[in-house]
Amino acid sequence: MKILLPIILGVSGLSGGLLAGHVLQTPDPEDVSAAEAPPPAAVAASDFVPLEKQFIVPVVEDSQVGALIVVSLSLEVEDGAAGAVDEHVPKLRDRFLSAMFKHAESGAFSGMFTSGPAIADLRGALLEAARDVVGPVVRDVLLTDLLKQDLKD
After folding, report:
1. E-state strands within the chain
2. Is the pLDDT of residue 49 over 70?
3. Which residue has the higher pLDDT, 12 or 81?
4. CA 30 – CA 45 distance, rounded (Å)
5. Cα dihedral 7/11/13/14 (nearest 10)
6. What whole-number distance in Å separates Cα of residue 140 and Cα of residue 42?
7. Residue 108's closest CA among 146, 59, 56?
8. Has residue 147 got a pLDDT over 80?
9. Which residues face 69 on adjacent strands?
10. Least trusted range by pLDDT, from 47-51, 108-112, 120-124
11. Which long-range contacts (CB under 8 A, 24 or more apart) does 52-56 make?
């Protein structure tokens, strides 16, 4: 009996530890992402329409132009909607410039003008302007180039 008791305690402790380890095991990240990820949706085709001319936005500081912002844009639109963009380029440029001037006036082109929130605000304003002009066929506005040229010495 003295020999049997340590064996029973050892076996029960070992099996309890194995059971606890199995229950508390950290799941494999691949298993979790596969189990929780929604099934892949069919990606709709897009057209990308570059706006040929760059946008130049002055940054006014102390009643003087302190810097120039140069921006190149492209629009992501539904497949086959590139013609709708081409028909509205003059109005699009006007609305885009208005949105960028407002962005500059708010001071967003000063300091960390490429920070996440500043770029998100600019992209949101440009996307809203594009959808106002062209309609919901516009999926996104892509900033393809963004340059700041300081003019003060």
Report:
1. 46-50, 55-61, 64-78, 138-150
2. yes
3. 81
4. 29
5. 130
6. 18
7. 59
8. yes
9. 57, 148
10. 108-112
11. 53/93, 54/145, 55/93, 55/96, 55/97, 55/100
